[in-house]
Amino acid sequence: MKHEYKLGGTVLLVDNVSVTIGDKPIIENVTMEEHDVIRDGHNQGQMIAVVGRSGRGKSTLFKAITGLRKPTKGRILIPSDEANKPIEVKEGDVGFVDQKYTLFRHLTLYNQLKLAAQKGSTPESEIHGRVMELLSKWGLEKAKDQYPGHCSGGQRQRAAILSQILSSGYFLVLDEPFSGLDVGNVEDVKSMLRLVNASHELSTIIFSTHDIELAVELADKIYVIGFPSEDKQIGTIVSAFDLKTLGLAWQSYGKEHIDLVHDIKKKILAS
Fold it and tell me: What structural domains and CATH numbers belong to the chain?
């Protein structure tokens, strides 16, 4: 059964963005526009996947979306606190979790999250309660006094995600969150992403992955970044698949999802 939904305001606009590093163009003319997805009876945000072969510019695009690298051309807009007044993204506006799960080595997990909350919008009087609530909900309460070097990879990843949620609001960008994980940890990350996705109507998760099956299972929109031709080897969006309009978003994984996986893989291999 196709789920009913409607679209609200724009939550992300990547407007004709190009990035050149030195004298080498990495991505060119990338355009993405995402709207708030509204479903009656559901508190959820957007789940967007970016897929493509290695070296096509996914990480560069993510650094631009998170304000870590300024576009050579174009602009990236996100909502501001003022209605109908989008702002150009700057570093710190959008949470970014890289493949290293970067944390401060000299801070315990509790103090990592406390610092993140102080940087964010949590009132000082509510920080301890908010941090403890998240530690408990994400299975980190027993590890709260441990330093990153004494934590498992899964614990560090969860702490890194929570740090970005607390400091950066409703956006979260994850570069290859499933890379190198075993089956159990993959399931944990899927559960975490769904938990973030359901935490607020405007929660927007953007992630990259080489696992197309996972992208189709989790995302409601998938972008393929690749080279447009053999003669032009600069990354750009070569295809987009909206699982909402296809009637596949928020559905149990089935034959139509498998067919879509094959279609996406063909697009990736051709670019």
Answer: 1-89+206-271 (3.40.50.300)
